TrEMBL record, chain A:
Annotated protein name in UniProt: Tripartite tricarboxylate transporter permease
Organism: Hydrogenophaga aromaticivorans
Signal peptide annotation: none
Alphabetical list of Pfam families matching this protein: TctA
Record's keyword terms, sorted: Membrane, Transmembrane, Transmembrane helix
Residue intervals passing through the bilayer: 20-50, 62-83, 109-136, 148-165, 171-189, 201-222, 325-345, 357-381, 393-410, 417-433, 473-492
Limits of the DUF112 domain: 21-441
UniProtKB/TrEMBL annotation, chain B:
Highest taxon above the source species: Bacteria
Taxonomic lineage from the root: Bacteria, Pseudomonadati, Pseudomonadota, Betaproteobacteria, Burkholderiales
Domain DUF1468, residue spans: 23-170
Pfam family for this entry, one: TctB
Transmembrane annotation, as ranges: 20-41, 53-74, 94-126, 147-169
UniProt keywords, alphabetically: Membrane, Transmembrane, Transmembrane helix
Record's protein name: Tripartite tricarboxylate transporter TctB family protein
Amino acid sequence: MLETWNNLLGGFVTAGTPINLLWALAGCALGTAIGVLPGLGPAVTVAMLLPITGQVEATASMIFFAGIYYGAMYGGSTTSILLNTPGETGTMVTALEGFKMAKSGRAGAALATSAIGSFVAGSIATVLVTLFAPILAEFAVKLGPPEYFCLMLLAFTTVSAVLGQSTLRGITALFFGLALGLVGMDQITGQVRYTGGVIEFMDGVEVVLVAVGLFAVTEALYNALYEGRSEANLNKMNKAHMTRTEWKRSWPAWLRGTFIGFPFGTIPAGGSEIPTFLSYATERKLADPEFKKEFGTTGAIEGVAGPEAANNAAVTATLVPLLTLGIPTSVTAAILLSALQNYGINAGPQLFETSSALVWALIASLYIGNVMLLVLNLPMVGLWVKLLKIPKAPLYAGILIFATVGVYGMRQSSFDLFIMFGLALVGVVLRRFDFPTAPVIVGLILGPLAEAQFRNAMSIGEGSLAVFFERPMSATLLAIVVLVLVTPRLLAWHRRS
Amino acid sequence: MNTTDSRDPPARADHRPGQLALGIAAVLLAAGLAYGAANIPSDAGYAGVGPDFLPWVVSAAMGLCGVLLIWEVRTGGFRNMPEPSGAARGDWHAMVWVSAGILGNAALITTIGFILSCAMCFTLAVRGLRISEGKPAGNAMQTVKDAVIGMLISAPTFWLFTKFLAVNLPGLTGTGWL
């Protein structure tokens, strides 16, 4: 314990040097900007910046990359709230309530709760990382394919059944996403599926493409079609602060979100979709009846506070398996791993011994980065709000330019731009007929992973489905899935009779 | 006894044809998925399930969803349907301009480079969006102004991403500035 404290203090000394502080600031600022822009994510950004590892010293570049990683989460929530175009998949849930809050004139509160909640969650999560890194990673290794599959099944269920007005429409959207995820080469056998002979589909449908098409470009098309005459002025924002009631409603949600989000960041296949949806569902269920009706209508602050905290906690937590086991649990974490490898540093259990200075400096810079991001996103939030004052027409047309960067920058394929347009048309239809788009993305991302886990599980169980029920953890998870599906119906039926 | 007409709110548009179309589309998609799944070999390897398992599952589920959606339409329409936001009828004129911008961009980006192509996309899209707001689409002078604004957005973006972030974006010339 004392040793941990000493190491941490040493880390602060390293992270606190002017050069490293500058790198942290650059990373946080760039990350925020990247998070705000739809289409470009922290993973792509860090990957594209990997060449700097040839020139820049290891500690400095890791601090920089980590800053981008977290900054993107803060920035992503800003766009989710103000423009209903989530910058990152982890901020999709924030868009649900946050945008509604912005539309009813409470953008400032949404942004405040998001920034402060992220800061609270990030700080608590960093403390947890400091204390529990070894223990948590050890538990995570015990999870096998059946458990992973059931976790993903839980994610599918929560995302289709909890969000939106109709479970049927949610599930339809989910299977549409799963169908999109099927395109391309099967992970396990290499079998090519649903490409129709088109070469560009061999690598599958790019996630960024679907996200940008279904969110950003759909927004532009839908606006042109239906929202032209709508009241342009969305909100009057005076201060980015919260009233006492809003504070009181937020901070339990922050804490719950942190403790929901943290475990998910540590397990492979966790990601930030599951904990944010879980947190949203939890907040919705636990909300005071008088606030419950704000969900989905004027926007409930708990629905922003909880998921934002969960998101940041999960992102911070991905450092645990990365630094202790060398297992990346998110795409960006994987890129961070290759950055470490560029320096000849092998992430793994030995990392804490061989490169202790770097690890502790990195952890210390997390604390510093969180403070920087709070400053960048709270007092400066007025700058972001000014985005809304930009007239709608050039704003959405401008978004198309950034969408092009994101989509084209991924695979240098103009064919992707055509697909993006096609998906945007689908997105307009989905929106018009109240089909949620979140399940499409979740189905697309988790689908292939879930399939791989399912097939591995079946191999373990030698072709029998019993494997999911015989193992206690996966049986428990399956029970939770059933509960999530059945409970609302039971409650509604009970209320009626 | 016919009680429906007097109680129907008169102004509510009937979305059921569109909903029916969606249900049918889901069923057709399921059929397409099934056709594709039939062409995938079911080699299961180590007693697991083969690469055709999930395609069949998704196809069956999508088909079921489509059938349920159609059933919902026939028994009164989609459940819990909020009135969609925005206008009741789509402004197709506006949409055509925006689409032209996006599609033109996709078609021309590798030919005339990012900056020019995106500026063109911006000009066409902003015209469409302006039309949707009921404002005059703009004369030649306005179009030139739009193009300039488009360039002012796409050029720095291009430079930022190609020079500082090493993203590979197409240029008209090889200089890296245009």
